Amino acid sequence: MSATADSAELTRRIDRIESHLAIQQLPIRYAIAVDSRDLDAWVNLFIEDVNCGRHGHGRAVLRRLIDGPVRTFYRSVHQICGHQVDFADDDHATGKVYCRAEHEAAGKWVVMAICYFDEYQRREGRWYFVRRKERHWYSSDVLARPGEPKFQSWDAWPDALPELPHHFPSWAAFWNEGSAEVPAALSRAP
Question: Alpha-carbon distance 114 to 176, whole Å?
């Protein structure tokens, strides 16, 4: 390989490392913004024209959408437990972020086991969230078991039913290879 090719490869590898580190900062910055109720910092982690579905586009729309939900709990602690990043190209990536979140809500401490499914984009040299989809295994008061009745025990969010682990494509494939009786023997809510 020539010196020019070696230099270009080194530059590409350094850019990938720097991009990976920058993307890994997004989830913890998000968690701190949620827990400190810094909604401006929160929305500024997203691209300017973030798609908010039927509500429209932009950070101002996103800020209005998140204001209400964060008022359903007082204190919160979002602990980032792990982060997988997969690059599509130099300016686009996806990721999965594990998080354990605790929320003080109406005399309870509601614990959630979460996986965020993220899309990232670099614009003008900076990485942002394009989309962030929260899916969780359960939510339950810290003093209660998460399995009763539907792995959802948070009164403020009765319709936010858990989608994990069933959302992972490998989950059904794994259990379909064995006896149908095994999941029912292992869990009351397979």
Answer: 24
Tens-digit pLDDT profile for the chain (190 aa)? Answer: 677 878 899 999 999 999 999 999 999 999 999 999 999 999 999 999 999 999 999 999 999 999 999 999 999 999 999 999 999 999 999 999 999 999 998 888 999 999 999 999 999 999 999 999 999 999 989 888 776 556 777 788 888 888 888 887 877 877 887 788 878 777 767 6
Cβ 47 vs Cβ 128: under 8 Å: yes
CA pair distance 81, 35, nearest whole angstrom: 16
DSSP character string of 11-80: HHHHHHHHHHHHHHHHHHHHHHHHHTT-HHHHHTTB-TT-B-GGG-BSHHHHHHHHHTGGGG-SSEEEEE
Q: With contact defined as beta carbons under 8 Å apart, do 123 and 137 qualify?
A: no
H or E stretch at 102: strand 92-105
Distance between CA 138 and CA 161 in Å, rounded? Answer: 8
In this structure, are residues 59 and 48 in contact, taking their beta carbons and an 8 Å threshold?
yes
